[in-house]
Input
Amino acid sequence: MIDGRMDFEIKFIEKTADGRLVIEFVPIPERYSIKEVNGVEGYWDKFDEKFISFDVFAEAVQNMDNLPVFYRKNPIKNVKRYTQERVEYLKLNWGNNLEGYQYYDESEEFLDSLKEVTLRFVILSIDIVGSTKMSQKLSLEDNAKVIQLYSSEVSQLIKCFGGYVLKFQGDGILAYFPEPNYIGMNDSAIECAHAIKYFIVNGLNTILNFKGLPSIGVRIGLDSGEAMIMIIGSKATKIQKDLIGKTINLASKIQSLADPNQILAGEATIRNAYFRYREMFDKKELPDTWNYYKSAEEGKEKYSVFAYKY
Output
């Protein structure tokens, strides 16, 4: 059994007479080299520094038979162009992004549609750096405008990358990227985090400054793992579906470690990301107060966090 993700390049072989495509999946040479260990041949994973024998690899391929193949669509082909278009739109439509308001919760609908109680997710946690100081400096109305525009634009980006907003917490936003494509959702979450950071720095701040408001910075944290879908609250007041689990808490803790406009990701997200994305992260030096471990038993190896380099 192969623990974790393998990356392949796809080679076209032929198109058959009945219209089917024949393709070949080849382990990507930049990540894998052929190696012999103790007389056994296999692939050496340069990223995770582990050996995968040809026998184990063949068994994993056999187990892939009849498994679904997911296509991960990304509607934002160019983040820079998207940002420029949104800036032009917002200059002309400032304050009109929530006209005709009607209550709608896409996350609630999605969670309601699921039959499973426990699923794997990538959790994205984001907040504004120095929001308390900003609220003290700005008028109540201006501060509300900043929060409203920020939450609206970030929410749209999350949706574009296949994610859902779980909840708003003042200037904080908690979002998730769900199964069934567990491998693809890690890539989507990283791409989304990058797009949010780029848009905030180069788009949203342009609009805020255009309206005489200060620039903002954000901190973003990602982590992947299981969470339980639970109904919380009371019928007497408010009741809703929520995600409960260590992954949600850890994503928020990881986010709190970030510097302004920095993206941090837990090792579960990095281990399941495409190797090109893994190259974009460096291991972060953790403070002595970081008391999160790879297993429930304390004293074991601490859970690693990685910082996006761009």
Notes: The two ends are 34 Å apart (CA to CA).
